[in-house]
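USER:
Class, as today's exercise, take the chain set out below, and explain how the chain folds.
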Amino acid sequence: MSEFLVGAYLWIKALHVISVIFWMAGMAYLPRLFVYHAEAGIGSDKSETFKIMERRLLRGIINPAMIAAFVFGGLMIWANPDLLGQGWFHAKLTLVILMTAVHGLFARWRKDFDADRNKRPARFYRIVNEVPPVLVVFIVILVIVKPF
């Protein structure tokens, strides 16, 4: 299996990058939906539409893309275990774990909106909307520059 992975490494890497792009696109869009949802009246048609949009985005795009990114990332580690000995990679994994925690928070907040239990103002979600892009900037720098 390891021989196959080494031979397919560039394809696996491409699929990993594609998965990450879809995951981050969703992670950038979902809190923007939360901003608008927080401004919509509870029980309004607008609120009910946002519930559907948020659920479909999370379940149909963000969750599968994250899982695919983890699977392809794991396969890359399996094919190239030397990655585990590099400092930049440990820093990247730390930021990926943090991104995964943010993903979990987004999923919890989506459930709060779905149950009409949101207590946060739109401004909160405007600020939170900046977290995934900031994490991505540092992750990409670590992967491309490999500063340590």
